[in-house]
Each structure stands twice: as C-alpha cells, then as structure tokens.
User: Fold these one by one.
Assistant:
Number 1:
Amino acid sequence: MRTIASAEFVERAACISCASANLRELSAGKFDEGPLERFIAADPWGEDPAPFLRGQPWSYVACQDCDLAFHRYILAPEWNERRFSRWMSQPAIEAFEQEYRTPANEFATATDHTAHVLRIERLTRELRGPQRTKVLDFGCGYGGFLAMCSLYGFDACGVDRSSAKRENNRFSRVFAEIDEVEPLAPFHALTLFEVLEHLDDPHGLVLRLSELLAPGGLLVLETPDCSGVRALETLDDYRKIHPLEHINGFTPETLTRFAVRLGFEPVARPTVYVTNDLERVARTAAKGLLRPLATPTTQQYFRKLQD
C-alpha cells in the first residue's frame, strides 16, 4: 500500500510587517475539518491536495502591535513549489477562472487596467520627463495589465512565479525571478495587483522590489479587503483568507501602515474617466469630490520617498 506524504509547513512566529512576536490567535482548526475541508474539496485542482493536508493545522493570527492578520502556518518551500507546479495546473486554473470570464467582467477588467495606466502616466510625468514610462508588474498573471501598458507605449515587463501562467502569457516580457529584471531597473512604477495576500514574506519582497524603483517612483498595491474577517466559516471568508493561497489578510489601514513602514508615502489617486456613459462620468466626478469622506479601500497608491 502506497503511503501518502504529509505536506510540510513552516511557522511564521512574528508579524510579517513589523516583526513583532506579540500575536493573538483569531481562529484555528485543521485542513480536513469543518467548512475548510468542504471548500477545498469543491475547488478544481490538478493534483488533489487533500490527501497531503490530512491532520494538518491552520491558525489565523493578528499582530497586537500593528493589527495585520495572517496565517501562522504556511507551506514549506518545496511544498509550495508543488502547489504551483502540480496542484495549480493550467486546466485547474482555467476551470477556477471560468465562472469569472464573462463579457461584463472582462470589460470591467479592461476598464480598470486602463484607469491604472492613465493614473500611472499622470503621476510619473515629473519623474520620467520625456522617457517612456517604465513599469514592473510583479505577480503579473497572464499579462493583461502589461498588454494594456504596451498599447499606451509604456516600457513594461512582469514577474510571475506560476509556470502555468508564464507559459500561457499574453505578453512576451514575463520572467520567473526578480534577478532577471534587475538589469532593467530603475522603474518609474511598480504594481502588485492581488499579490501581497499570497506572499510568504511580503515585507521582504516589497523591500527588495523597492530597490528597483526610482526615488519618487510609484507603488500601486491592491489586495482583497479582509476587514472583519476572523475565521473560515463562509465561502467569502475562504476566498479572502484561503490558508494555502490568501495567507495574509490586509485591511485599508494595515495596508497603508505596511507601505509606510517600507519607506513610502500615500498618494491620492487622480480621477480618471474610462467610459462613454455620461451618467458614469458624473458619478465618478462626484466620488472624486467626496473622496476625503469616502470609505478607505485596499487599492492604494504610494510614492517612494527620496533617498
């Protein structure tokens, strides 16, 4: 009888932002118990991870000094590589994303990409002068944002760890490692869309990436908003703090503190209009006027402080 190996995890015993060891547990359990077991079973996979996760604990904690929440236990590097190469196969990724690939969602995504491009162009004018806008998109996925940048004449490249996404990318300049893009630095803008929540060491990685960003350069961060999420009880909880995928749970406040600690200052997002709907233009203009009163979000812009 063939023995199934158990996945190996490592413990993050200190805060992934401020390094404090003053943590409190918000919730805990095992991968093969309760709602989490059902949620994992319902997801599409290449190689099914469930047999490797039996009896393994999870623990969702929060830093008592800076409030950032994260999963204490994360897959060991060799098992995380297995997750990328075998559990998250290309057919599994496509099956998971299929329900989101509607004409309305694809249109909205293209609109969002354009809005980011226009904001980045506006906010980097003084920094780059007559040069092309140089953008590095870390965790670029299939390269949709990079393709939009290219259409606007940006000098853009990306990094993505997933071999399935690199091999099926829409954009040619996508690399597996940061080392490969270092010769292309400095960049005028660095973007991480829906990336920080996946990183074992988000502080260390963004610190390294910031070295590739010109002084005064732009940092764009976007994560799921995990405000109020403390446990894995509902499907929405699972989508936001999946203990294999979304191992860090940011809120608007903790995202801002995270970036400021790394040497960035918040920047107001310029109002842009990407629509042919006059009513939407009016709503966007109104939101711009009311922005100081608006609810904070986990889509934020920052500028690197001058050295």
Number 2:
Amino acid sequence: MKKNPQQRIEELRGLIREHDHKYHVLAQPSITDFEYDQLINELIRLEKENPQLITPDSPTQRVGSDLTKEFKPVQHKIPMLSLSNTYSEEELYDFDRRIRESLPKNEIPEYVCELKIDGLSVSLRYINGKLNVAATRGDGTTGEEVTNNIKTIRAVPLIIKKPLSIKMKLAEFEVRGEVFMEVEAFNRLNEERELKCRILK
C-alpha cells in the first residue's frame, strides 16, 4: 500500500535525523553516502511537490545559500558568563574557599577538570523540542543571531524528542556550548577549497 506524501516525508525526516546522529555524533555510520543522498533527494522532491508540508526543522532546511550575513541582536534570558582565568595555586585555593562557603554545611564539593576548548560560544534555544533561535555570547547579555549558520552543523539537532521516561513537557530550554572545528576537519576543508581553486583556474 502506497504511503501518502505526508507519511513518507515524516518517515524520511526520521531516517535522516537518525543517520545524521549516527554519522556526526556517534561516528558510526550505518549507510553509505550514496544511500544517504538518495534519502535526502527523495525528501527534497516530495517537499517541492508538497511545499505546504515544509517545516523549519526539516533536514532540507539545514544548508542553503541564505546564510546570515547581517546578525540581529538577541537578548539572553539568562546571562552567558565567561570563565575567569587563574594563574596561581593561591587563586585555586581561593576559588575552592568561595565554593565551600556557598554550599550547605558539611557538603564537600567535587571537581572535574578537562581541557578547555576555545571556540565560538553559542546558546541554542528550543521551544517544544524544535530549534527556535541560536545566538552567540556577545557581551554576555546580548548576542547575535546565527540560527541559519548553526543549521549547517549536522551534529546540532533541529528537533529533540523527549525520551519516554521523561513525563515533563519540553516547553522551552537552552543548550549552551562551544562551536569549533577539529584540526582534521579544518585541514580537509582547506584541501577541498584548494582543489576547487585549481579547477576554476
């Protein structure tokens, strides 16, 4: 029995999101690039035939020629603060003292130390599980909207489905982190650009 366009579109979106997660987040692709492209092309064709079914969170809306050139200001609901630098052992002990003083009596803090990744700080705001707006840190109070640019990063989900174990409603929440490019990916990008320049010459 042939599925109606809406059913097939939803099925394709689900499959593409699953494969994006496997490839870009888990680094465990389960289909070939050709098979992935076939899914994308079918979705593009069905959405062209049924434009009323296109939604902002569709995988086809990730990459396009409409990357943001002028950034609109975005007010952070909660300030995006930056980390302070510490240059001496004395300052570390002072930090620990302030933490302990802010905790209830007899509660002992635990610390996790890891290398700091210095990239572009961003805040991703999701409303009802869908990416609504992405913004840079800016001055901590006001940042710049980079939603369309962030959509080009396939490791960033456009839609988040709540696990069955979570009963609460995902009305609105923010995810904050650093956008960065690994050296390997950066070198690969430069090689591709160099190859394109040679072809154009």
